[in-house]
Amino acid sequence: MNAKSTKNPLILGIESSCDDTSAAVLRGRRLLSNVIASQQVHVKYGGVIPELASRAHQQNIVPVVDAALREAGIGMGELDAIAFTRGPGLLGSLLVGVSFAKGLSLAHGVPLVEVNHLEGHILSHFIETSGDEDHPDFPFLCLLVSGGHSQIVLVRSPLDMEIIGTTIDDAAGEAFDKCAKILGLPYPGGPHIDRLAQGGNSHAFDFAQPRVGGFDYSFSGLKTSFLYTVRDMSPGFVADHLADLCASLQRAIVETLLYKLIRAAKELGVSEIAAAGGVSANSGLRDALVAEGARRGWRVYLPPLRFTTDNAAMIAAAGLFAFEAGRRSTLDAVPVTRLAK
Ligand code: KG4
Ligand code: ZN
């Protein structure tokens, strides 16, 4: 007899696509635990070193999953499904989470559900912590901005998403991180730029904002423009104008993101607007979305800060929708570094 509740399934989420090892437990949409081990080993290299990332995942995965289950007060046998990130991400990193999820599934007879990491970011809006959260109505547009992706996604339902614009080169987070590196700031630089920008004049400098066709993005021209500007400055001048440089860079990135999002919202006639991904933690972007929303009659949804960067709660949330729709994965599932969709 199966005593497991199907009304509010218990889902364990496992995320290991980049440099955060995370596990979370949801009962229905309600978050019971969300444990994240961030890897510090990459800081001294100024970027994620894939081989070191996968080794750190191997060290972290058992204690992280164990802590998530303990914090939730849930035993393996009670779970209805294990949701895992299949991709996109770093192959070696993904392998750790995928293999561990398969092992748990096999050992405890719990079904597996694979999750697209990017859909996880978007569906982070449906995680409930207090129960009185507001979440976007379908269809909505999601500005998905992370270290690896910058996309505008039309979300018709949790299982029906269409990427209508994407970056043709660097992602927004990459632009933040690469420009931060030029300034000598630690990795990842996005949060440092955000913090320093608060005390700066965002109109002190102008950087190139190349615009490509349709709803697509490009950030490599902005990065190059930033590099050339800073290269011509003396180190003393850069130090004196650090806040202004950060504020001006942040304005350029935010304006670039908003320009296409506004066009997409207009052309598609959608006024439910959400943001997701690591860069959606950026205070300049959050403020601009709220201001633009007030001007244009949008309903704007910003994820709580702790669900912006990589976490397993969002993977469990995406897994919940897939599980309820009857989707299951087999032990043949393999990680994918890039996903077609
Ligand atoms: O979603 P995420 O954790 O990982 C990926 O899936 O890529 O995003 C990480 C990215 C990094 O580029 C980081 O610099 C950026 O999000 N980020 C920020 C902020 N917080 C994180 N960028 C700008 N401002 C922030 N406050
Ligand atoms: Zn991510």
Structure in a nutshell:
The chain has helices at 50-72, 91-108, 117-123, 172-182, 190-197, 220-231, 235-240, 242-268, 283-296, 312-324; strands at 10-15, 20-27, 30-38, 81-87, 112-116, 140-145, 150-157, 160-166, 272-276, 299-301. By secondary structure, the chain is of the alpha/beta class.
SSE arrangement:
Elements: E1 10-15, E2 20-27, E3 30-38, H1 50-72, E4 81-87, H2 91-108, E5 112-116, H3 117-123, E6 140-145, E7 150-157, E8 160-166, H4 172-182, H5 190-197, H6 220-231, H7 235-240, H8 242-268, E9 272-276, H9 283-296, E10 299-301, H10 312-324
Parallel strand pairs: 1-4, 4-5, 6-9, 9-10
Antiparallel strand pairs: 1-2, 2-3, 6-7, 7-8
5'-O-[(R)-(carboxyoxy)(hydroxy)phosphoryl]adenosine binds next to helix 4 and helix 5.
